[in-house]
Amino acid sequence: SMLFKLDTALNEIWHKVYQSPSNFITTGIFDLLVDESGYTLFGGTRNYGITYDTNYRHQSIIIKTDTAGNQQWHYASPKAALTDCQGVISEALRTKDGGYLYSTSAMAYNAAIPTAAIDLQSKRVLIKLDAARNKLWQTAIDAYYSRCSGISYMKIIELADSSFKVVTHVTVDSFGKNF
Description:
Layout: E1 2-6, E2 12-17, E3 25-35, E4 38-46, E5 57-65, E6 71-76, E7 80-81, E8 89-94, E9 100-104, E10 123-129, E11 135-142, E12 154-158, E13 164-168
Antiparallel strand pairs: 1-2, 3-4, 4-5, 5-6, 5-7, 8-9, 9-10, 10-11, 12-13
């Protein structure tokens, strides 16, 4: 993945390339947070397996840089099976306690996988990390109704009382929810 800094005329000032923190390939960076200390990039990686193959693995990644784009640290979730919902981060935020809350794409093209940790057909997973990037909890929420959906777009905000609001779209394919 690449991060570019451009001037007001859209001329490149610099760009940085970030490699996957493992031998996986980067699936993509899908969210970016900017603050006074630098940039935080959110995305995912995967191996070269086929998504229906039991050897297929993916993981969520977070890359923190300084204001010059130099990598400060990275987080990678455990390399997980398709059914473990530790896929690409599509939406994230820095929480008031210094941690992160993010939403993953389960990449569930076949929701009838018998070993699934949750019902992947109609759920998204929100994962909370503390400031040291330790996983505190995860929860599944209804987000889309389609075996054909890829990344389901959503927005997460933290309220004054440290609770969260989540908004997402619902995709219903032509076969309906129970196809």
